[in-house]
């Protein structure tokens, strides 16, 4: 189990990068590389991280990064694995690190193909729920009601459930995480490293400029996402769902904070009416009702 005491003190993402103040994704990438270690190759598409990891010839990263086309994260990870095999290089971790636009939309076909082949790498989607690097355009991972530059009155469609899409591929391991809970995230990466095949982690990554909240509130917003039940922390492996972290005690509606606390803390939901807020709360409650059934079917539902 990863704790603060045994989490590596070595840094593989150095200070002085181009991330926005309060950026959850770069903080999470820092944690991921602490777990993965120096024998790691990271591939990233066009996204915030392609700017954060630095403009040539300077970079804050101490491991190799491959910048690839928007649609090609999983394809390039597959290619890296093939090249390492041809060269006889063993013991090197390959990480695909992409935003929600490059995962849920533009890159999903390459990811699905890699999942079908069960390629042996870890894929992490840092989900800031819009195309943040190019001006906060809506993606299929943008939640219903959120204002972006392309959904100026609030998005009408629900958020795409990419973890469930990956579970349908029956890969070895799928998990969700949140940047506000770094040790939970780190432990899931550790578990993924112990398995062979494609492992997928979907990380909620609050974005201060895109979600319109003060930069110092990143962790608070992330914790609200979980404590209100808007974001469920769980793992799936061998057909079984298991809750993790704070979500383990939130199967009952009475244990969850009102969703309104999460929504009102962000400017992107400022256009919501009371009726729309109520509808979003019902979405969360329905999501939990469905998830509780999955826990029962898995034999992992909490007792008492």
Descriptive overview:
The chain has about 300 residues and is an alpha/beta fold. The chain has one domain (about 25-300): Thiamin diphosphate (ThDP)-binding fold, Pyr/PP domains (Rossmann fold, 3-Layer(aba) Sandwich), CATH 3.40.50.970. It has eleven helices and eight strands. The chain has helices at about 25-35, 50, 75-85, 100-105, 110-115, 160-170, 180-195, 210, 220-225, 260-265, 275-300; strands spanning about 40-45, 65, 95-100, 120-125, 175-180, 200-205, 235, 240-245. An eight-stranded mixed β-sheet has the order 2-1-3-4-6-5-7-8, with helices on both faces. Helix 2 links the parallel strand 1 and strand 2 (about 65). The chain is globular, with a radius of gyration of 19 Å. It starts with about 25 loop residues before the first helix and ends in a 6-residue tail after the last helix.
Q: Give, in order, the helices and strands.
A: HEHEHEHHEHEHEHHEEHH
- Beta-strand level of the residues, as a percent range? 5-15%
Give the CATH superfamily: Thiamin diphosphate (ThDP)-binding fold, Pyr/PP domains
Mean pLDDT: 96
Which oligomeric form is depicted?
single chain
CATH topology: Rossmann fold
Structural class: alpha/beta
Number of helices: 11
How far the N terminus sits from the C terminus, by CA atoms, comes to 26 Å
Which percent range fits the helix content? 25-40%
Shape: globular
For the record, the count of structural domains works out to: 1
Largest sheet: 8 strands, mixed
Widest sheet: strand ordering: 2-1-3-4-6-5-7-8
Using DSSP, what is the number of strands? 8
CATH architecture: 3-Layer(aba) Sandwich
Q: Which consecutive residue ranges, at least 5 long each, have pLDDT under 50?
A: none
